[in-house]
Amino acid sequence: MFQLRPCPPIVLWGRNVRQENPVEQGRAREAAAVQPSASIRVPRQAAQGQQDRARGEHTHSEPPAPRIVQRHSVRGQILDALRAALVDGDMVPGEVYSAPVLGERFGVSATPVREAMQQLAVEGAVEVVPNRGFRVAERSARELAELAEVRALIEVPVMLRLARTVPVARWAELRPLAEATVAAAAVGDRAAYAECDRAFHRAVLALAGNQQIVAVADDLHRRSQWPLVSAPAPRRADLLADAAEHTALLEALMAQDLAVVQSLVREHFTGSVG
To answer: Compositional bias (Basic and acidic residues) at which positions (predicted)?
Structure first.
């Protein structure tokens, strides 16, 4: 089974998650009582208005746009780590995983783990097993073929339209994303490759200006990356071949070669490792 390296910061399947110390948490809560929290929305003008009112001045300014401060999300990092574990095959299809047990291995409470697993259940990666935990979904070759067919129905027409309208310079801007997939494939990092693969496809589809297409296609893409039951893990050579198709597709899009674009996209989905 998977291994975790319990050193601060804790490494979850290659992902860093900040370890929460109970003493530090208590100090943080005390500090939050006297200082603005770093995880809340702080309207600048609202704060100024409070100061003005304290001086007896009256303000009539419109509600300001809040300044959003990013929150460190343990749940989000665990979710990323679990997704990577699914792609890597560290989480085995058919096996049941307990949130409390995983929480102990992660060095966090069961709550963020359970929340992350519930998100994976919504995505279809796992299913809830009452009083036991979450079972990793078992996918068949038929399901993978159906996902490839739906992805092709969405992405092929969009890419053909983009090939006719998008300037070469815009396609050239995506070259670093295609090269990133090659770099991840070269070291055999399946989880990193999966992320780079989706990033490249998202960037291409985003040129259509339809965020709904991007969201739906990305969800289908993510689901297509989960391993099949009893299937061997993709080899480094498989990843390199898949990555090469990204580069070839980009060249065909820049050349406005519609026939090659259509052929490459369909073949990419049919034999894709991600």
So the answer is: 52-61
| End-to-end C-alpha distance for the chain, whole angstroms | 22
Torsion of Cα atoms, 227 then 229 then 232 then 238, to 10°: -40
Residues 6+ apart with CB under 8 A from 37: none
Query: pLDDT per residue over 91-136, tens digit each?
Result: 888 999 999 999 988 889 999 999 999 999 998 899 999 989 999 9
**pTM of the full structure:** 0.69
The C-alpha angle with vertex 197 and arms to 91 and 274, in degrees rounded to 5, equals 50
Distances (CA, A) of 70 to 7, 24, 64, 76, 192: 25, 19, 18, 12, 24
* Residue whose tokens read 């910061």: 9
How far apart are alpha carbons 31 and 87 in whole angstroms?
A: 40
Is residue 159 within 8 Å of residue 213, measured between CB atoms?
A: no
- Please give the backbone phi and psi of residue 189, each rounded to the nearest 5 degrees, phi first: -85, 100
Residue 190 has pLDDT above 70, yes or no: yes
Q: How far is 90 from 97, CA to CA, in rounded Å? A: 12
Q: Which residues pair with 136 in a beta bridge?
A: 126
Please tell me the distance from the alpha carbon of residue 119 to that of residue 125, in angstroms, as a whole number: 9
Tokens encoding 151: 């992805």
Distance CA 85, CA 97 (A): 12
The residue type of 97 is Y
Instruction: Express each pLDDT in 12-21 by its tens digit.
Output: 444 444 444 4
Q: Is 68 left (phi over 0), alpha (psi -120 to 50) or beta?
A: beta
The reported pLDDT for the residue numbered 96 is 94
